[in-house]
């Protein structure tokens, strides 16, 4: 039997009953997917208790594996990277930012072969992430408060984070975390994620009740869920 459950902080976990095993076995996949195999003599409620009691260790290992699997595209001189509201140009020599055109200015002595160094690549990635963070701060808080008011789904606190996997999360205390990389998505998919997390303020799991409620406030729910698979927080591709 296969079932998807939701554990606070950990996220979705697929539970499978396997008569051939004797002990609990939790498998970590590089895409962040978690699969918990249960022997028949262990009840689901006991498996959930085990997951909850090992939350910190599980989250740490999951995040570590995701970081190792990040597909960091090799940025090169004269590349242009488009965020929601900006064009980021990687150039050799000094340039001034003009309007929505931002420049990552490299020492003229730096060549593309030097730029392939992981430290240099990560510096460019960090610059892009900071642009996403600034854009997210201007859009996401206002939009989630608007949707919260419209649908009467209050939350407690809001945080913007640079997560490597999850687009958002809602804690048991109704604190909502949103990924700055939501800025990669079109508006209707951003709304889908925000409504998803707001629904968790009243329904903590991903039961049929959860999806039925979300479908009432999120138009084209099935379409949104399919399209979300086309986006990733872990790829950086130039225009």
Describe the structure.
The protein is of the alpha/beta class and 239 residues long. The protein folds into two domains: 2-68, no CATH class; 80-228, Metalloproteases ("zincins"), catalytic domain (Zincin-like). It is 39% helix and 20% strand. The chain contains seven helices and ten strands. The strands form three sheets. A four-stranded mixed β-sheet has the order 1-2-4-3. Strands 5-6-7 form a three-stranded mixed β-sheet, covered by helices on one side. The longest helix has 34 residues, at 118-151. It is globular and about 65 Å long. The model has no long low-confidence stretch (mean pLDDT 88).
What is the CA-based Rg, rounded?
Answer: 21 Å
- Describe the main β-sheet briefly: 4 strands, mixed
Structural class: alpha/beta
Sketch the topology as an H/E string, one letter per element: EEEEHHEEEHHEEEHHH
Low-confidence spans: none
- Number-wise, the strands total 10
Number of helices: 7
Question: Separation of termini?
Answer: 44 Å
Global morphology: globular
Side-by-side strand order of the widest sheet:
1-2-4-3
CATH architecture of the largest domain: 2-Layer Sandwich
CATH superfamily of the largest domain: Metalloproteases ("zincins"), catalytic domain
Q: Domains counted in the coordinates: how many?
A: 2
- Give the mean pLDDT: 88
Portion of residues within helices: 25-40%
CATH top level label of the largest domain: Alpha Beta
Which strand-content bin applies to the residues? 15-25%
Say what the CATH topology of the largest domain is: Zincin-like
